[in-house]
Amino acid sequence: MVKLGIEKQEGKLSDQFAEKFRPKSKSGPVGQITELKDLVAGYAKQQTVDPLKTLGRYLGYGFAGSMVMGLGFFLLLLALLRGLQQFTVFNDPSQIDGGTFSWAPYFITAAAGTVLVVLFLWRLIVNLNKHHAASAHPA
Q1: Which runs of consecutive H residues, i.e. helices, occur in the chain?
Q2: Domain that holds residue 57
Q3: Which one of 39, 108, 121, 122 is separated from 66 by 20 to 30 angstroms, measured CA to CA?
Q4: Is 23 inside a domain boundary?
């Protein structure tokens, strides 16, 4: 019997605790309008602010990655230029100005850089067209 009394008392305590922290229901038209306003504001925040935060993070990492890749390609092209300048075909050590074909390493490096840019733009256009076609004709 004592045990039953304790259980009943514990049940009352948990009910009191739940009642104390249960959200108060807003009664009447003013309370319902206030609740509706809060729900609409929360929904608008969820649908606008949160995706913008995600978009900002996505764009930040994309920008940082593109800068690192751009620096890497620049250094590779610079290494190509310096490597080509070491060949005696392009750089005649007996002449002060480097010889007749001293312009060739610069031309070859510029051509390689142009090819890289064209390849990146081509892949970008292909992916944009593929994405546009997929969004225009949903399954």
Answers
A1: 2-21, 28-85, 104-136
A2: 43-139
A3: 108
A4: no
| Side-chain half-sphere exposure of 56, counting CA atoms within 13 A | 6
In a domain, 88, yes or no: yes
> Are the beta carbons of 85 and 74 closer than 8 angstroms?
no
Q: What is the spatial distance between Cα 136 and Cα 35, in angstroms, rounded to a whole number?
A: 39
Mean pLDDT by 10 residues, the chain (139 residues): 51 62 69 91 88 90 96 98 90 78 94 97 94 77
Residue 24, in any domain of the structure: no
Q: How many residues does the chain have?
A: 139
Contact criterion met (CB below 8 Å) for 89 and 101: yes
Q: Do residues 65 and 51 lie in contact, with contact meaning Cβ atoms separated by under 8 Å?
A: no
How many domains are there within the chain? 1
Residue 92 lies in a domain: yes
Which amino acid appears at position 109 of this protein?
A: T
